[in-house]
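HUMAN: Would you supply a protein with fold tokens?

ASSISTANT:
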Amino acid sequence: MSVQEVKVAYTGADPTAFGVMGLSLICFVASSSKLSFTDPKATGLLVIWAALLGGLVQIIAALIDFKKGNVFGGTVLGAYGFFWVGMAFSWATLNGMLGEGMKAAADPKQLGVVFVGYLIFSLFITVASFETNVPFIIILLLIDVLFITLACVSFKWGPIALYAQIAGWTEFLISLVGFYSVGGIFFKNFYGRDILPMGAPMGLIKKAAPAPAPVARTKGV
């Protein structure tokens, strides 16, 4: 009798288009508020869409990407997914939805600290994005600008109105480039070929050769 180690690989579909759709849609909705296309003070519905589209959708896609061994996709979608969950709870707190005590104890400048922390994270991810495709590079560069401007607004540094406008338009552009990426990735997976060009990795930092797969061992019992 023998016991053999069996490794099961993930064989499901690529969740990237699904996850990027969540990011694109919440940025589209949130930018409408920042740019006053909708009421900037009415953030009640943003709480819902940030939690579901920005948060839940991206986190689900991230978990699948991790199962596939896609470190970039899992890390990016997971990190930004939880960012939007945090933003949903932050808006709920500032709106008094979680109680007047929570609202009174909130310091909006702490969001500035969050934005700085995510900026640091995003800078590392931006470097890695140059090994993916052109739309992802653009999205990550825009996200860097977004966190810089949001931090300045939170800490009230410089011309606040200007930074708020830059943040709004940056978020709007993230959504548009994101929607393009969704179409490009979905079409490629569905039709099996490139329909919308995504560009090739730039190869600025050479990746190490992948390690050979481990050999399954059989043990006698």
DSSP finds seven helices and two strands in the chain.
